Amino acid sequence: MLISELKQAADLAPFLKQHRWVIATFSANWCESCQRLAAVVTRLSPQHSKLNSISINVDRHPELTRSYAVRSVPTLLLFKQGVIASRLSGLHNEDQLNNWLSQHITPPNE
For the whole model, what pTM was predicted? Predict the structure, then answer.
């Protein structure tokens, strides 16, 4: 899993086009639950090698926060080929997050 932090809003669309599966984590520096969820995503990364992750700071990118209708942090958006496949809000443990990902990520030949 490639884990990146979004620097400029304009970089999101090319990132989504470049990778088949992307998990976008909308978070804020002041959000303790966001920091805990980021650690969970990092720990799960070896199990999901085809998944790429990008962190989006809601305070730095309010336009993306609005355009993706993010109403609370942390919020995860799972993209498949640039299209939102699923959304998950709030803090979740490793098992919950792993189950959510497994429900949506299909094998490479599908």
Answer: 0.91
For the stretch 34-62, pLDDT in tens is 999 999 999 998 888 889 999 999 999 99
The residues annotated as belonging to the active site are 31, 34
The answer, yes or no, to whether the previous bond of 74 is cis (omega within 30 of 0) is yes
Range of the domain at 27: 3-104
Strand partners, 22: 52, 79
CATH of the domain at 82: 3.40.30.10
Contacts of 8 (CB under 8 A, 6+ apart): none
* Residue type at 73 in one-letter notation: V
Quick check: is 109 in a domain?
Answer: no
CA–CA gap between residue 39 and residue 25 (Å, rounded): 12
- Asked whether residue 110 is assigned to any structural domain, the reply reads no
